[in-house]
Amino acid sequence: MPNGSLSLPARLCLLAWDPARSSAAETARVHHLVRAGALTELAQRGLLTDDEGIATPADLDSRTGDAVLDGLLELVRESLPHRWRTWVRLHARVTFDAVREQLVAEGYLRAEKKRVLGVFPSVEYVLARAVAARALREEARHLLEGPLPAGEVSERDAALAALAAAAGLGGPGRTAGGVRGRDRITELTRRCASAAPGMRKIVGEVWDEVSDETARAPVSARG
User: What is the C-alpha to C-alpha distance for residues 18 and 170, in angstroms, rounded to an integer?
Assistant: First the structure.
């Protein structure tokens, strides 16, 4: 998988950028997608577990070494208990902003200062490595449409493709239609939920929330 050193939320955030326009839609759907990726990665690492539908830290001390993932883990620890679907939405912009800054630091995005109406300072984030974003979209499309059995796809890559499809992002959202496409998404969702007991419920709730947000979004905002 290209950009394999990036976390799952970082790869999903990069996937949201349109290589043709070097920009990304600043929508709640993208924020929720990135948060969903962070929740899924923490669950796959065994740092968040399911307790009767509640996202629950496995312990009070574990860290990943990734500032974004550790920040979310700390937020869950310090907050009132919430269900997975609630965590997809709750303060999701915080996770998105942190991931975007990571991508700037890694050279995938570039922050350009500008002035709105020639007066108010603002920052626009544009793709600095369009080739990497294009390759990531192509690989996600291949995972959704290609011949590789779902059982041979890594759990991490399966999560990327399944969540991208739930969000209807670019190529994956448009090309995974029909009965075969839905079956493939189901297979990949099951694959990324195979890591540990309880993962199927976790992935199901997270996937459903992103999918519902996509269904509610106007067609023009779906990328």
Answer: 8
